[in-house]
Sequence to fold (550 residues):
Amino acid sequence: MTPANLSESIARVLRELMDGSLAPFELGEIVVERPKSREHGDWATNVAMQYAGKAGLKPREFAEILAPALQSVEGIAKVDIAGPGFINVTLEAGAAGAIAKDIVTAGDAFGKGNALTGLKMNLEFVSANPTGPIHIGGTRWAAVGDSLARILQAQGADVTREYYFNDHGAQIDRFARSLLAAARKQPAPEDGYAGAYIDQIAAQVLAGAAEDLLSLPEAEAQEAFRAAGVELMFEEIRISLHDFGVDFDVFFHENSLYESGAVNRAIARLRELGHIFEEDGATWLRSTTFGDDRDRVIIKSDGEAAYIAGDLAYYLDKRSRGFDRCIYMLGADHHGYVQRMMAMCAAFGDEPGVNLEIMIGQLVNLVRDGEPVRMSKRAGTVVTMEDLVEIVGVDAARYALVRSSINSMLDIDLALLEKKTNDNPVFYVQYAHARTKQVAANASSLGVDTSEFQPELLNHASEEELLAKLIEFPRVTAMAAEFKEPHRVARYLEEVAGSYHRWYDNCRVTPLSGGEVETIHRTRLWLNEAAGVVLRNGLGLLGVSAPERM
RNA sequence: GCCCCUAUAGCUCAGGGGAUAGAGCGUCGCUCUCCGGAGGCGAAAGCGCAGGUUCGAAUCCUGCUAGGGGCGCCA
Fold:
Protein backbone atom coordinates (compact mmCIF):
# COMPACT_ATOMS: atom_id res chain seq x y z
CA MET A 1 0.00 0.00 0.00
CA THR A 2 1.34 3.38 -1.01
CA PRO A 3 0.62 6.70 0.68
CA ALA A 4 -1.62 7.56 -2.27
CA ASN A 5 -3.64 4.38 -1.82
CA LEU A 6 -3.93 5.07 1.86
CA SER A 7 -5.13 8.61 1.22
CA GLU A 8 -7.82 7.26 -1.05
CA SER A 9 -8.84 4.68 1.50
CA ILE A 10 -9.11 7.29 4.22
CA ALA A 11 -11.16 9.55 1.97
CA ARG A 12 -13.47 6.67 1.12
CA VAL A 13 -13.93 5.71 4.76
CA LEU A 14 -14.63 9.32 5.71
CA ARG A 15 -17.32 9.64 3.05
CA GLU A 16 -18.93 6.47 4.29
CA LEU A 17 -18.87 7.78 7.83
CA MET A 18 -20.54 10.99 6.73
CA ASP A 19 -23.66 8.94 6.07
CA GLY A 20 -24.06 8.44 9.77
CA SER A 21 -21.42 8.90 12.41
CA LEU A 22 -19.95 12.16 11.13
CA ALA A 23 -21.54 15.44 10.23
CA PRO A 24 -20.89 15.96 6.51
CA PHE A 25 -18.18 18.43 5.51
CA GLU A 26 -16.17 19.20 2.44
CA LEU A 27 -13.19 16.93 2.09
CA GLY A 28 -9.94 18.35 0.76
CA GLU A 29 -6.53 16.82 0.47
CA ILE A 30 -5.72 13.91 2.73
CA VAL A 31 -2.14 14.15 3.89
CA VAL A 32 -0.44 10.88 4.68
CA GLU A 33 3.15 10.97 5.73
CA ARG A 34 5.88 8.97 7.21
CA PRO A 35 6.02 9.42 10.98
CA LYS A 36 9.36 10.72 12.11
CA SER A 37 9.60 8.00 14.69
CA ARG A 38 9.20 4.39 13.64
CA GLU A 39 7.34 3.56 16.85
CA HIS A 40 4.43 5.51 15.48
CA GLY A 41 3.71 3.01 12.78
CA ASP A 42 4.14 2.98 9.03
CA TRP A 43 2.11 6.02 8.13
CA ALA A 44 0.46 8.89 9.89
CA THR A 45 -2.30 11.28 8.99
CA ASN A 46 -3.42 14.50 10.57
CA VAL A 47 -6.94 14.46 9.10
CA ALA A 48 -8.48 14.39 12.54
CA MET A 49 -6.85 17.69 13.42
CA GLN A 50 -7.52 19.05 9.98
CA TYR A 51 -11.23 18.30 9.78
CA ALA A 52 -12.43 17.93 13.37
CA GLY A 53 -13.49 21.55 13.48
CA LYS A 54 -15.53 21.24 10.30
CA ALA A 55 -17.28 18.19 11.68
CA GLY A 56 -17.98 19.97 14.94
CA LEU A 57 -15.77 17.71 16.99
CA LYS A 58 -12.52 17.81 18.87
CA PRO A 59 -9.58 16.17 17.09
CA ARG A 60 -9.46 13.21 19.47
CA GLU A 61 -13.20 12.59 19.14
CA PHE A 62 -12.91 12.73 15.38
CA ALA A 63 -10.01 10.30 15.47
CA GLU A 64 -11.90 7.90 17.70
CA ILE A 65 -14.64 7.65 15.12
CA LEU A 66 -12.33 7.32 12.14
CA ALA A 67 -9.74 4.94 13.57
CA PRO A 68 -11.99 1.89 14.11
CA ALA A 69 -13.42 2.30 10.61
CA LEU A 70 -9.94 2.35 9.12
CA GLN A 71 -9.09 -0.81 10.98
CA SER A 72 -11.22 -2.84 8.58
CA VAL A 73 -9.48 -1.58 5.44
CA GLU A 74 -7.62 -4.30 3.64
CA GLY A 75 -3.87 -4.18 4.14
CA ILE A 76 -4.07 -2.23 7.39
CA ALA A 77 -2.97 -4.15 10.45
CA LYS A 78 -3.30 -1.60 13.20
CA VAL A 79 -4.57 1.92 13.76
CA ASP A 80 -3.55 4.04 16.74
CA ILE A 81 -4.44 7.50 17.92
CA ALA A 82 -1.63 9.57 19.34
CA GLY A 83 -0.94 13.00 20.71
CA PRO A 84 -3.43 15.69 19.83
CA GLY A 85 -5.13 13.46 17.25
CA PHE A 86 -2.58 11.89 14.93
CA ILE A 87 -3.80 8.64 13.44
CA ASN A 88 -0.97 6.19 13.05
CA VAL A 89 -1.41 3.31 10.67
CA THR A 90 0.54 0.10 10.70
CA LEU A 91 0.33 -1.98 7.55
CA GLU A 92 0.14 -5.73 7.31
CA ALA A 93 3.41 -7.54 6.84
CA GLY A 94 4.35 -7.59 3.18
CA ALA A 95 2.16 -4.71 2.20
CA ALA A 96 5.17 -2.43 2.22
CA GLY A 97 7.63 -4.95 0.88
CA ALA A 98 5.56 -5.57 -2.24
CA ILE A 99 6.56 -2.08 -3.35
CA ALA A 100 10.07 -3.29 -4.09
CA LYS A 101 8.87 -5.37 -6.98
CA ASP A 102 6.55 -2.65 -8.22
CA ILE A 103 9.46 -0.22 -8.38
CA VAL A 104 11.67 -2.63 -10.28
CA THR A 105 8.85 -3.38 -12.69
CA ALA A 106 8.23 0.29 -13.30
CA GLY A 107 11.95 0.88 -13.88
CA ASP A 108 12.65 4.13 -15.70
CA ALA A 109 9.02 5.09 -15.36
CA PHE A 110 9.15 5.10 -11.56
CA GLY A 111 9.03 8.71 -10.45
CA LYS A 112 7.34 9.95 -13.58
CA GLY A 113 3.90 11.48 -13.58
CA ASN A 114 1.47 13.23 -15.86
CA ALA A 115 0.63 16.33 -13.88
CA LEU A 116 1.91 18.54 -16.70
CA THR A 117 0.93 16.47 -19.69
CA GLY A 118 -0.09 18.58 -22.65
CA LEU A 119 1.56 21.73 -21.32
CA LYS A 120 3.97 23.46 -23.65
CA MET A 121 6.64 25.12 -21.58
CA ASN A 122 9.50 27.36 -22.59
CA LEU A 123 12.36 27.41 -20.15
CA GLU A 124 14.83 30.17 -20.77
CA PHE A 125 17.99 30.12 -18.74
CA VAL A 126 21.67 31.06 -18.75
CA SER A 127 21.27 33.52 -21.67
CA ALA A 128 24.68 34.95 -20.83
CA ASN A 129 26.01 37.69 -23.04
CA PRO A 130 28.32 36.48 -25.80
CA THR A 131 31.00 38.85 -24.57
CA GLY A 132 32.81 36.31 -22.43
CA PRO A 133 32.80 32.80 -21.04
CA ILE A 134 29.95 31.65 -18.83
CA HIS A 135 30.73 32.59 -15.28
CA ILE A 136 29.73 30.90 -12.09
CA GLY A 137 26.30 32.56 -11.87
CA GLY A 138 25.34 31.35 -15.32
CA THR A 139 26.67 27.97 -14.36
CA ARG A 140 24.22 27.78 -11.49
CA TRP A 141 21.41 28.44 -13.91
CA ALA A 142 22.71 25.87 -16.34
CA ALA A 143 22.61 23.22 -13.63
CA VAL A 144 19.28 24.27 -12.15
CA GLY A 145 17.58 25.05 -15.44
CA ASP A 146 18.52 21.82 -17.12
CA SER A 147 17.55 19.80 -14.09
CA LEU A 148 14.23 21.62 -13.86
CA ALA A 149 13.63 20.89 -17.53
CA ARG A 150 14.17 17.19 -16.86
CA ILE A 151 11.85 17.29 -13.86
CA LEU A 152 9.09 19.05 -15.77
CA GLN A 153 9.48 16.62 -18.66
CA ALA A 154 9.17 13.74 -16.22
CA GLN A 155 5.74 15.13 -15.34
CA GLY A 156 4.74 15.04 -18.97
CA ALA A 157 5.43 18.65 -19.95
CA ASP A 158 6.60 19.48 -23.44
CA VAL A 159 9.69 21.49 -22.52
CA THR A 160 11.86 23.63 -24.76
CA ARG A 161 15.21 24.71 -23.37
CA GLU A 162 15.99 28.12 -24.75
CA TYR A 163 18.97 30.45 -24.64
CA TYR A 164 18.49 34.13 -25.46
CA PHE A 165 21.58 35.30 -27.20
CA ASN A 166 22.11 39.03 -26.67
CA ASP A 167 23.91 39.79 -29.90
CA HIS A 168 22.48 43.28 -30.24
CA GLY A 169 23.29 46.47 -28.47
CA ALA A 170 26.05 48.46 -26.91
CA GLN A 171 27.78 45.65 -25.04
CA ILE A 172 28.48 43.92 -28.34
CA ASP A 173 30.09 47.08 -29.67
CA ARG A 174 32.28 47.23 -26.60
CA PHE A 175 33.18 43.61 -27.13
CA ALA A 176 34.15 44.29 -30.76
CA ARG A 177 36.27 47.30 -29.80
CA SER A 178 37.97 45.26 -27.11
CA LEU A 179 38.86 42.55 -29.60
CA LEU A 180 40.18 45.07 -32.03
CA ALA A 181 42.32 46.72 -29.36
CA ALA A 182 43.67 43.34 -28.30
CA ALA A 183 44.52 42.49 -31.89
CA ARG A 184 46.46 45.73 -32.10
CA LYS A 185 48.22 44.92 -28.81
CA GLN A 186 46.63 48.01 -27.34
CA PRO A 187 45.16 48.22 -23.83
CA ALA A 188 41.47 47.43 -23.53
CA PRO A 189 39.05 50.34 -23.93
CA GLU A 190 37.95 52.07 -20.75
CA ASP A 191 34.48 50.50 -20.85
CA GLY A 192 35.58 47.32 -22.61
CA TYR A 193 36.34 43.74 -21.75
CA ALA A 194 39.71 42.37 -20.83
CA GLY A 195 41.17 39.05 -19.93
CA ALA A 196 43.02 36.22 -21.53
CA TYR A 197 39.97 35.11 -23.46
CA ILE A 198 39.80 38.45 -25.29
CA ASP A 199 43.37 38.03 -26.50
CA GLN A 200 42.65 34.46 -27.57
CA ILE A 201 39.55 35.33 -29.51
CA ALA A 202 41.20 38.33 -31.12
CA ALA A 203 44.02 36.07 -32.26
CA GLN A 204 41.54 33.52 -33.60
CA VAL A 205 39.68 36.19 -35.51
CA LEU A 206 42.91 37.41 -37.05
CA ALA A 207 44.03 33.91 -37.95
CA GLY A 208 40.69 33.01 -39.46
CA ALA A 209 40.32 36.09 -41.62
CA ALA A 210 40.96 35.97 -45.35
CA GLU A 211 42.34 39.50 -45.41
CA ASP A 212 44.46 41.65 -43.14
CA LEU A 213 41.81 42.98 -40.78
CA LEU A 214 44.14 45.45 -39.11
CA SER A 215 44.65 47.38 -42.31
CA LEU A 216 40.94 47.92 -42.81
CA PRO A 217 39.26 51.23 -41.98
CA GLU A 218 38.24 51.46 -38.33
CA ALA A 219 34.54 50.82 -38.82
CA GLU A 220 35.05 47.88 -41.12
CA ALA A 221 37.66 46.36 -38.84
CA GLN A 222 35.38 46.67 -35.86
CA GLU A 223 32.52 45.08 -37.74
CA ALA A 224 34.76 42.21 -38.84
CA PHE A 225 35.82 41.58 -35.25
CA ARG A 226 32.24 41.87 -34.07
CA ALA A 227 30.88 39.33 -36.51
CA ALA A 228 33.67 36.79 -36.18
CA GLY A 229 34.22 37.38 -32.46
CA VAL A 230 30.59 36.87 -31.51
CA GLU A 231 30.48 33.72 -33.58
CA LEU A 232 33.57 32.31 -31.88
CA MET A 233 32.35 33.28 -28.43
CA PHE A 234 28.97 31.78 -29.16
CA GLU A 235 30.53 28.53 -30.24
CA GLU A 236 32.71 28.43 -27.16
CA ILE A 237 29.70 28.95 -24.93
CA ARG A 238 27.73 26.28 -26.75
CA ILE A 239 30.54 23.77 -26.29
CA SER A 240 31.00 24.63 -22.61
CA LEU A 241 27.32 24.01 -22.05
CA HIS A 242 27.37 20.79 -23.98
CA ASP A 243 30.33 19.56 -21.97
CA PHE A 244 28.35 20.47 -18.88
CA GLY A 245 25.56 18.21 -20.08
CA VAL A 246 23.25 21.03 -21.10
CA ASP A 247 21.98 21.14 -24.65
CA PHE A 248 19.57 23.86 -25.63
CA ASP A 249 16.81 23.25 -28.12
CA VAL A 250 16.79 26.85 -29.27
CA PHE A 251 19.48 29.50 -29.30
CA PHE A 252 17.46 32.60 -29.99
CA HIS A 253 19.33 35.56 -31.40
CA GLU A 254 18.18 38.91 -30.09
CA ASN A 255 19.38 40.56 -33.26
CA SER A 256 16.90 38.54 -35.33
CA LEU A 257 14.05 40.34 -33.61
CA TYR A 258 15.30 43.62 -35.00
CA GLU A 259 16.09 42.29 -38.43
CA SER A 260 12.71 40.63 -38.85
CA GLY A 261 10.77 43.68 -37.72
CA ALA A 262 9.34 41.77 -34.77
CA VAL A 263 10.25 44.59 -32.41
CA ASN A 264 8.32 47.13 -34.46
CA ARG A 265 5.36 44.79 -34.71
CA ALA A 266 5.33 44.26 -30.95
CA ILE A 267 5.33 47.99 -30.34
CA ALA A 268 2.60 48.48 -32.94
CA ARG A 269 0.53 45.86 -31.18
CA LEU A 270 0.89 47.63 -27.84
CA ARG A 271 0.03 50.89 -29.54
CA GLU A 272 -3.20 49.39 -30.84
CA LEU A 273 -3.99 48.24 -27.34
CA GLY A 274 -3.47 51.81 -26.14
CA HIS A 275 -0.52 51.27 -23.85
CA ILE A 276 2.03 53.37 -25.73
CA PHE A 277 2.66 57.10 -25.46
CA GLU A 278 5.26 59.60 -26.63
CA GLU A 279 7.05 61.96 -24.30
CA ASP A 280 10.35 63.87 -24.29
CA GLY A 281 11.05 62.54 -27.76
CA ALA A 282 10.92 58.94 -26.57
CA THR A 283 8.37 56.16 -26.92
CA TRP A 284 7.04 54.77 -23.65
CA LEU A 285 5.12 51.77 -22.41
CA ARG A 286 2.54 52.83 -19.84
CA SER A 287 3.51 49.97 -17.56
CA THR A 288 2.15 51.72 -14.48
CA THR A 289 -1.29 50.66 -15.71
CA PHE A 290 -0.25 47.15 -14.80
CA GLY A 291 1.43 47.69 -11.47
CA ASP A 292 4.89 48.80 -12.46
CA ASP A 293 6.18 51.63 -10.31
CA ARG A 294 7.05 53.77 -13.31
CA ASP A 295 6.51 53.86 -17.05
CA ARG A 296 9.27 52.50 -19.25
CA VAL A 297 11.07 53.88 -22.24
CA ILE A 298 10.92 51.52 -25.21
CA ILE A 299 12.44 53.71 -27.93
CA LYS A 300 14.95 56.20 -26.65
CA SER A 301 14.89 59.80 -27.82
CA ASP A 302 17.92 59.08 -29.99
CA GLY A 303 15.81 56.57 -31.92
CA GLU A 304 17.60 53.49 -30.56
CA ALA A 305 15.55 50.74 -28.99
CA ALA A 306 15.88 50.25 -25.27
CA TYR A 307 16.71 46.76 -24.08
CA ILE A 308 13.13 46.02 -23.11
CA ALA A 309 12.00 46.52 -26.70
CA GLY A 310 13.66 43.26 -27.61
CA ASP A 311 12.00 41.55 -24.69
CA LEU A 312 8.57 42.69 -25.80
CA ALA A 313 9.08 41.11 -29.18
CA TYR A 314 10.77 38.07 -27.74
CA TYR A 315 7.91 37.32 -25.36
CA LEU A 316 5.40 37.74 -28.13
CA ASP A 317 7.46 35.44 -30.31
CA LYS A 318 7.48 32.75 -27.65
CA ARG A 319 3.72 32.98 -27.26
CA SER A 320 3.24 32.81 -31.01
CA ARG A 321 5.31 29.63 -31.04
CA GLY A 322 2.62 28.09 -28.88
CA PHE A 323 4.15 28.16 -25.41
CA ASP A 324 1.54 28.21 -22.68
CA ARG A 325 4.13 28.91 -20.06
CA CYS A 326 7.17 31.08 -20.59
CA ILE A 327 9.58 30.73 -17.72
CA TYR A 328 12.54 33.06 -17.36
CA MET A 329 15.31 32.27 -14.96
CA LEU A 330 17.17 35.40 -13.95
CA GLY A 331 19.82 36.35 -11.46
CA ALA A 332 19.03 38.42 -8.40
CA ASP A 333 20.70 41.41 -10.02
CA HIS A 334 17.78 41.45 -12.48
CA HIS A 335 14.97 41.28 -9.96
CA GLY A 336 14.12 44.89 -10.66
CA TYR A 337 13.17 43.73 -14.12
CA VAL A 338 10.37 41.47 -12.94
CA GLN A 339 7.71 44.09 -12.44
CA ARG A 340 8.05 45.65 -15.86
CA MET A 341 8.09 42.23 -17.52
CA MET A 342 4.90 41.29 -15.73
CA ALA A 343 3.38 44.59 -16.74
CA MET A 344 4.35 43.88 -20.33
CA CYS A 345 2.73 40.47 -20.11
CA ALA A 346 -0.48 42.00 -18.80
CA ALA A 347 -0.36 44.74 -21.44
CA PHE A 348 -0.47 42.04 -24.10
CA GLY A 349 -3.57 40.67 -22.40
CA ASP A 350 -1.84 37.67 -20.87
CA GLU A 351 -1.88 36.53 -17.30
CA PRO A 352 1.25 37.40 -15.33
CA GLY A 353 2.50 34.55 -13.22
CA VAL A 354 0.84 32.02 -15.49
CA ASN A 355 1.81 32.70 -19.07
CA LEU A 356 4.93 34.44 -17.87
CA GLU A 357 6.82 33.28 -14.85
CA ILE A 358 10.11 34.69 -13.67
CA MET A 359 12.34 32.78 -11.32
CA ILE A 360 14.91 34.83 -9.50
CA GLY A 361 18.01 33.02 -8.33
CA GLN A 362 20.35 34.46 -5.79
CA LEU A 363 23.95 34.94 -6.75
CA VAL A 364 26.67 32.42 -6.21
CA ASN A 365 29.49 33.59 -4.05
CA LEU A 366 32.84 32.13 -4.80
CA VAL A 367 35.31 32.04 -1.99
CA ARG A 368 38.74 30.61 -1.56
CA ASP A 369 39.76 29.84 2.00
CA GLY A 370 37.01 32.14 3.16
CA GLU A 371 38.16 35.06 1.03
CA PRO A 372 35.75 36.24 -1.68
CA VAL A 373 36.85 35.68 -5.25
CA ARG A 374 35.70 38.37 -7.63
CA MET A 375 34.04 37.05 -10.73
CA SER A 376 33.96 40.07 -12.92
CA LYS A 377 34.56 39.52 -16.59
CA ARG A 378 36.33 42.82 -16.80
CA ALA A 379 38.74 42.03 -14.01
CA GLY A 380 39.90 39.14 -16.10
CA THR A 381 39.90 36.82 -13.12
CA VAL A 382 36.83 35.08 -14.33
CA VAL A 383 35.85 31.88 -12.67
CA THR A 384 34.12 30.20 -15.52
CA MET A 385 32.01 27.13 -15.99
CA GLU A 386 35.04 25.41 -17.46
CA ASP A 387 37.18 26.36 -14.49
CA LEU A 388 34.69 24.87 -12.09
CA VAL A 389 34.34 21.70 -14.13
CA GLU A 390 38.08 21.36 -14.36
CA ILE A 391 38.38 21.61 -10.60
CA VAL A 392 35.59 19.29 -9.50
CA GLY A 393 34.17 17.60 -12.58
CA VAL A 394 30.75 17.92 -14.12
CA ASP A 395 28.89 15.70 -11.67
CA ALA A 396 30.18 17.38 -8.54
CA ALA A 397 29.77 20.84 -10.01
CA ARG A 398 26.20 20.25 -11.14
CA TYR A 399 25.26 18.58 -7.92
CA ALA A 400 26.76 21.30 -5.74
CA LEU A 401 24.85 23.93 -7.67
CA VAL A 402 21.53 22.13 -7.78
CA ARG A 403 21.24 20.87 -4.21
CA SER A 404 20.36 24.24 -2.74
CA SER A 405 17.29 26.38 -3.13
CA ILE A 406 17.75 29.14 -5.68
CA ASN A 407 16.48 31.53 -3.02
CA SER A 408 19.66 31.01 -1.08
CA MET A 409 22.92 32.66 -1.77
CA LEU A 410 25.40 29.97 -2.33
CA ASP A 411 28.94 30.04 -1.05
CA ILE A 412 31.24 27.75 -2.94
CA ASP A 413 34.70 27.40 -1.54
CA LEU A 414 37.11 26.55 -4.32
CA ALA A 415 39.84 25.51 -1.93
CA LEU A 416 37.45 22.99 -0.43
CA LEU A 417 36.39 21.61 -3.78
CA GLU A 418 39.93 21.43 -5.05
CA LYS A 419 40.73 18.88 -2.41
CA LYS A 420 38.61 16.42 -4.34
CA THR A 421 37.54 14.85 -1.10
CA ASN A 422 34.08 13.69 -0.15
CA ASP A 423 33.07 17.15 0.89
CA ASN A 424 30.57 17.02 -1.90
CA PRO A 425 27.56 14.85 -1.04
CA VAL A 426 27.30 13.77 -4.65
CA PHE A 427 29.84 11.08 -3.87
CA TYR A 428 27.68 9.78 -1.07
CA VAL A 429 24.76 9.36 -3.43
CA GLN A 430 26.78 8.02 -6.33
CA TYR A 431 28.53 5.57 -4.08
CA ALA A 432 25.20 4.19 -2.94
CA HIS A 433 24.26 3.59 -6.54
CA ALA A 434 27.60 1.97 -7.33
CA ARG A 435 27.07 -0.24 -4.33
CA THR A 436 23.70 -1.48 -5.62
CA LYS A 437 25.50 -2.53 -8.78
CA GLN A 438 28.30 -4.20 -6.85
CA VAL A 439 25.84 -6.08 -4.70
CA ALA A 440 23.92 -7.21 -7.76
CA ALA A 441 27.11 -8.42 -9.41
CA ASN A 442 28.12 -10.36 -6.31
CA ALA A 443 24.64 -11.81 -6.04
CA SER A 444 24.75 -12.93 -9.61
CA SER A 445 28.10 -14.64 -9.22
CA LEU A 446 26.87 -16.49 -6.14
CA GLY A 447 23.72 -17.70 -7.81
CA VAL A 448 21.27 -15.35 -6.12
CA ASP A 449 18.55 -14.55 -8.65
CA THR A 450 15.13 -12.93 -8.66
CA SER A 451 13.16 -16.10 -9.10
CA GLU A 452 11.47 -15.64 -5.74
CA PHE A 453 9.85 -12.69 -4.01
CA GLN A 454 8.25 -12.89 -0.59
CA PRO A 455 7.67 -9.31 0.48
CA GLU A 456 6.77 -10.15 4.07
CA LEU A 457 10.39 -11.20 4.56
CA LEU A 458 11.49 -7.60 4.15
CA ASN A 459 10.74 -6.90 7.76
CA HIS A 460 13.99 -5.67 9.22
CA ALA A 461 13.78 -2.13 10.58
CA SER A 462 16.29 -0.96 8.00
CA GLU A 463 14.24 -2.55 5.23
CA GLU A 464 11.06 -0.89 6.38
CA GLU A 465 12.90 2.40 6.49
CA LEU A 466 14.34 1.95 3.01
CA LEU A 467 11.02 0.84 1.51
CA ALA A 468 9.21 3.79 3.01
CA LYS A 469 11.84 6.12 1.62
CA LEU A 470 11.70 4.61 -1.88
CA ILE A 471 7.91 4.92 -2.05
CA GLU A 472 8.19 8.65 -1.57
CA PHE A 473 10.05 9.18 -4.83
CA PRO A 474 7.04 9.91 -7.08
CA ARG A 475 5.73 12.41 -4.58
CA VAL A 476 9.11 14.10 -4.35
CA THR A 477 9.44 14.44 -8.11
CA ALA A 478 5.88 15.74 -8.40
CA MET A 479 6.58 18.31 -5.73
CA ALA A 480 9.89 19.31 -7.28
CA ALA A 481 7.98 19.99 -10.50
CA GLU A 482 5.11 21.81 -8.81
CA PHE A 483 7.38 24.15 -6.88
CA LYS A 484 10.07 24.15 -9.58
CA GLU A 485 12.63 23.16 -6.98
CA PRO A 486 15.13 20.60 -8.27
CA HIS A 487 17.01 20.69 -4.99
CA ARG A 488 14.25 18.62 -3.42
CA VAL A 489 15.30 15.68 -5.55
CA ALA A 490 18.93 15.99 -4.48
CA ARG A 491 18.06 16.17 -0.80
CA TYR A 492 15.77 13.21 -1.13
CA LEU A 493 18.47 11.14 -2.83
CA GLU A 494 20.80 11.82 0.05
CA GLU A 495 18.19 10.35 2.37
CA VAL A 496 17.73 7.35 0.10
CA ALA A 497 21.48 6.80 0.03
CA GLY A 498 21.59 6.92 3.82
CA SER A 499 18.75 4.42 4.15
CA TYR A 500 20.37 2.17 1.58
CA HIS A 501 23.75 2.18 3.31
CA ARG A 502 22.10 1.34 6.62
CA TRP A 503 20.18 -1.49 5.01
CA TYR A 504 23.36 -2.78 3.40
CA ASP A 505 25.06 -2.94 6.77
CA ASN A 506 22.17 -4.85 8.29
CA CYS A 507 20.80 -7.10 5.61
CA ARG A 508 22.86 -9.25 3.32
CA VAL A 509 21.76 -10.03 -0.20
CA THR A 510 24.31 -12.80 -0.57
CA PRO A 511 24.66 -15.53 2.04
CA LEU A 512 27.76 -15.74 4.20
CA SER A 513 30.38 -18.00 2.73
CA GLY A 514 29.21 -21.59 2.88
CA GLY A 515 25.60 -20.55 3.42
CA GLU A 516 22.66 -21.57 1.32
CA VAL A 517 20.96 -19.15 -1.03
CA GLU A 518 17.52 -18.69 0.47
CA THR A 519 14.29 -16.98 -0.43
CA ILE A 520 15.21 -13.97 1.65
CA HIS A 521 18.34 -13.37 -0.40
CA ARG A 522 16.39 -13.48 -3.64
CA THR A 523 13.75 -11.23 -2.20
CA ARG A 524 16.35 -8.74 -1.00
CA LEU A 525 17.86 -8.66 -4.46
CA TRP A 526 14.59 -7.08 -5.57
CA LEU A 527 14.90 -4.42 -2.92
CA ASN A 528 18.51 -3.80 -3.87
CA GLU A 529 17.46 -3.22 -7.45
CA ALA A 530 14.56 -1.03 -6.37
CA ALA A 531 17.01 1.23 -4.55
CA GLY A 532 19.18 1.29 -7.66
CA VAL A 533 16.21 2.32 -9.79
CA VAL A 534 15.37 5.24 -7.53
CA LEU A 535 18.96 6.44 -7.24
CA ARG A 536 19.46 6.14 -10.97
CA ASN A 537 16.21 7.88 -11.91
CA GLY A 538 16.81 10.59 -9.35
CA LEU A 539 20.36 11.31 -10.44
CA GLY A 540 19.08 11.36 -14.01
CA LEU A 541 16.70 14.17 -13.10
CA LEU A 542 19.68 16.14 -11.85
CA GLY A 543 21.79 15.47 -14.90
CA VAL A 544 24.33 13.68 -12.74
CA SER A 545 25.71 10.31 -13.75
CA ALA A 546 24.95 7.14 -11.84
CA PRO A 547 28.24 5.28 -12.05
CA GLU A 548 28.44 1.51 -11.67
CA ARG A 549 31.75 1.81 -9.88
CA MET A 550 33.75 4.69 -8.51
C1' G B 1 13.91 56.14 0.87
C1' C B 2 11.57 51.92 -1.86
C1' C B 3 11.71 46.66 -3.78
C1' C B 4 13.53 41.30 -3.79
C1' C B 5 16.24 37.31 -1.22
C1' U B 6 18.42 35.48 3.21
C1' A B 7 19.25 34.62 8.79
C1' U B 8 18.61 26.95 11.45
C1' A B 9 24.85 22.78 14.40
C1' G B 10 31.89 24.97 14.06
C1' C B 11 31.23 25.20 8.11
C1' U B 12 27.94 24.55 3.58
C1' C B 13 22.92 23.87 3.46
C1' A B 14 17.69 20.94 3.97
C1' G B 15 13.15 21.34 6.57
C1' G B 16 5.05 21.32 1.79
C1' G B 17 1.34 24.71 9.95
C1' G B 18 2.26 19.07 13.26
C1' A B 19 5.07 14.39 17.22
C1' U B 20 12.07 14.11 19.74
C1' A B 21 14.30 20.27 13.90
C1' G B 22 17.88 16.91 9.75
C1' A B 23 22.10 15.84 6.07
C1' G B 24 27.11 16.29 4.31
C1' C B 25 31.73 18.08 5.97
C1' G B 26 34.52 19.17 10.61
C1' U B 27 35.45 17.43 16.09
C1' C B 28 35.45 13.17 19.69
C1' G B 29 34.57 7.81 20.59
C1' C B 30 33.27 2.88 18.55
C1' U B 31 32.98 -0.50 14.27
C1' C B 32 37.35 -4.08 9.44
C1' U B 33 36.16 -13.04 10.59
C1' C B 34 32.78 -12.13 4.94
C1' C B 35 28.17 -8.37 -0.52
C1' G B 36 33.74 -2.08 -1.57
C1' G B 37 35.00 1.21 5.44
C1' A B 38 33.87 6.64 -0.25
C1' G B 39 30.13 2.61 4.76
C1' G B 40 27.65 1.94 9.72
C1' C B 41 26.78 3.17 15.16
C1' G B 42 27.21 6.78 19.13
C1' A B 43 28.48 11.85 21.35
C1' A B 44 28.89 17.22 21.66
C1' A B 45 26.52 21.26 19.04
C1' G B 46 21.37 25.09 16.43
C1' C B 47 15.88 27.88 14.65
C1' G B 48 18.92 36.45 14.72
C1' C B 49 15.52 39.53 18.28
C1' A B 50 10.39 40.97 19.85
C1' G B 51 5.34 40.59 19.27
C1' G B 52 0.91 38.32 16.80
C1' U B 53 -2.39 34.36 14.38
C1' U B 54 -3.23 28.96 15.71
C1' C B 55 -5.15 23.37 19.53
C1' G B 56 -0.04 23.52 17.52
C1' A B 57 4.98 28.13 14.34
C1' A B 58 11.81 27.11 12.07
C1' U B 59 7.45 27.39 8.74
C1' C B 60 2.15 32.27 8.31
C1' C B 61 1.67 37.95 9.68
C1' U B 62 3.93 42.67 11.75
C1' G B 63 8.09 45.31 13.59
C1' C B 64 13.32 45.39 14.53
C1' U B 65 18.48 43.93 13.66
C1' A B 66 22.20 41.94 10.34
C1' G B 67 23.94 40.29 5.43
C1' G B 68 23.41 39.98 -0.15
C1' G B 69 21.18 42.08 -4.49
C1' G B 70 18.34 45.83 -7.14
C1' C B 71 16.03 50.61 -7.96
C1' G B 72 18.90 54.37 -15.80
C1' C B 73 16.20 57.20 -22.26
C1' C B 74 22.70 50.73 -19.29
C1' A B 75 22.38 45.97 -21.31
Q: What stands out?
A: The radius of gyration of chain A is 29 Å. Chain A has 20 helices and 15 strands. The mean pLDDT of chain A is 90. Residues 218-243 of chain A form the longest helix (26 residues).
